[in-house]
Inverse folding.
């Protein structure tokens, strides 16, 4: 399963790149074939460690396909998940 | 059904509020009131001298969020026309960051809708500001708690 990941603002700087194609293997999906947003975060933390420490930021906002995600939301192959801090436009 | 995304522009060039107002009024003589908000880059923030501002955004999601906000404003008030223009990229003090204009037949609708749109733009639209300060230091701005409080005064539906 391929998930497109985007980071914005201070998280983008912390990660060192604006985006990432994340391939979750069958083993990582544990044969279930589905991946929740929370499970994706756990996999990213396993693979990238300190580079993604902001995923524990209590203010972290997550969107799936440009819509703010719901807890427990399940991802589909090809989905785009963005991680960003609280917004500050206007 | 109005296509709300048509009423929104994200631009890396200067915003011409005079031209935006002309376009808003064009061909609609039912308009009796226009209320607009213009937000500028300040040269001082939290005690530090600001020399520049970088505005990052999430293309695609910004337009979706703003369209949702405009759709809700359109549903709540009797509006004739709406326009939202937001600058991105590198800005300098006194540059216009955002222009919101709302036209209605009577002033009450335009006043309320303009404030509503700004309150939710600040809360929901994925833009992020990074300030460059005197001496070369730069910092990402966090949202203010007062922004959330400001938006809470609008009941979920009416």
């Amino acid at each position: 399963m391929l998930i497109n990941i985007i980071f914005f603002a201070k998280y983008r700087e912390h990660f060192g790149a604006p985006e990432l194609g994340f391939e979750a293997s069958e083993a990582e999906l544990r044969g279930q074939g589905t991946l929740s947003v929370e499970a994706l975060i756990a996999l990213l933390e396993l693979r990238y460690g300190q580079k993604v420490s902001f995923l524990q930021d209590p203010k972290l906002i997550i969107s799936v396909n440009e819509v703010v995600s719901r807890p427990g939301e399940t991802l589909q192959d090809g989905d785009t998940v963005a991680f960003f801090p609280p917004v500050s436009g206007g | 059904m109005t296509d709300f995304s048509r009423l929104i522009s994200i631009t890396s060039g200067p915003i011409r509020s005079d031209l935006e107002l002309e376009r808003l009024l064009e061909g609609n003589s039912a308009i009796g009131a226009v209320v607009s908000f213009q937000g500028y880059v300040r040269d001082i923030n939290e005690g530090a001298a600001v020399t520049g501002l970088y505005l990052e955004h999430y293309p695609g999601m910004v337009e979706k969020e703003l369209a949702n906000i405009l759709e809700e404003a359109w549903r709540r008030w009797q509006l004739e026309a709406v326009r939202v223009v937001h600058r991105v990229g590198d800005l300098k003090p006194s540059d216009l960051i955002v222009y919101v204009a709302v036209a209605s037949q009577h002033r009450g609708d335009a006043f309320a809708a303009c404030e509503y749109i700004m309150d939710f733009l600040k809360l929901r639209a994925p833009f992020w500001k990074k300030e460059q300060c005197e001496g070369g230091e730069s910092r990402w701005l966090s949202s203010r708690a007062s922004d959330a409080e400001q938006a809470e005064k609008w009941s979920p539906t009416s």
